[in-house]
């Protein structure tokens, strides 16, 4: 995907490795032609690519002509992200917002953009959403006033409970705007991985309606499964799937694959989603809202209908 393409170029660049101009031009063309899509992951992709462009330009790893084009593209991306901001400060969704803020920091627009401070306010209001290592890894640099462009050159300090940051916030580009403040640093330190906290005991049970859909061209029949599942009140979607799998007559089965983000749903009712077919098992809450979390993190409400839909990406 272009996200991975951008991430690869960014990783090489922060380690001062040169990339062939043709490889960079292809990414630039994709950005200019709006090929990063308009779906749920467009902001993440646009931001990763803009960071890669800013890195290449700053490190002088490209000629001056291309450097000017990359700078213009990164600033264009930064502007379009500021324009895409919701009234509540979020850009894309809560998980892509830190990526957009990294672009503001890297391109130096954080001082002039009210979008940066509004996004920071949104993050601070929703810090509890960052409960997994993968989501924390994307939000922590921003709370400390840094982007991934800085990380290869930072000294890790040997302080108990803190690996970096405390002393360097004051020198940072955006501290003038007052947003990367000691208060933010304190809040950043309070992020706790959910799996390290004991799961709160919620008494009672809940009922979740589980629906499986496989539209054309993959299946003839759209709805393949529709059943209510009773689970303890604190159950996650993964718990719901496990409970459905042991219900008589054992006609529900599924598989997950472990990733850095947690378990990724790969197979439902024997139907496997495949990279080559560009399809995946999309998670939705009825009638049609995609979830912003994976199966292990999402905790449905009592009476909620959850849809597993084989979809294209
Ligand atoms: C590309 C992408 C996808 C692609 C992956 C396929 C592909 N070949 O590229 C597709 C479209 C399939 C996808 C699906 C989903 N995604 Co996605 N995805 C991304 C994105 C943009 C990049 C991931 C990546 O390539 N990382 C780089 C590579 C090198 O690392 P990797 O660990 O090998 O990446 C793999 C895993 O990340 C996995 N994956 C992708 N998304 C998700 C989501 C979850 C919950 C899990 C467990 C794994 C997973 O697929 C990647 C490629 O193999 C990230 C953005 C981000 N900020 O991280 C969102 C992101 C990780 N996805 C997200 C979400 C919510 C989902 C879905 C749950 C959406 C939905 N409602 O169905 C589903 C997963 C459902 C399931 N079956 O379990 C969120 C996760 C937020 C969170 N709370 O953790 C992110 C952060 C996007 C966002 N801003 O909301 N995703």
Automatic annotation (TrEMBL):
Q: Name one GO biological process term.
A: cobalamin transport
Q: Which GO terms describe its molecular function?
A: cobalamin binding; metal ion binding
Is Metal-binding there in the keyword field? yes
Tell me, what's a Pfam family for it? Answer: Cobalamin_bind
Q: List the disulfide bonds.
A: 13-55
Q: Which UniProt keywords apply?
A: Cobalt, Cobalt transport, Disulfide bond, Ion transport, Metal-binding, Secreted, Signal, Transport
User: What InterPro entries does UniProt report for this protein, alphabetically?
Assistant: Cbl-bd_prot (IPR002157), Cobalamin_Transport (IPR051588)
Into which family does the record put it?
A: Belongs to the eukaryotic cobalamin transport proteins family.
Reported function: Primary vitamin B12-binding and transport protein. Delivers cobalamin to cells.
- Could you identify this protein by its name? Transcobalamin-2
Which species expresses this protein natively? Elachura formosa
Gene that produces this protein: Tcn2
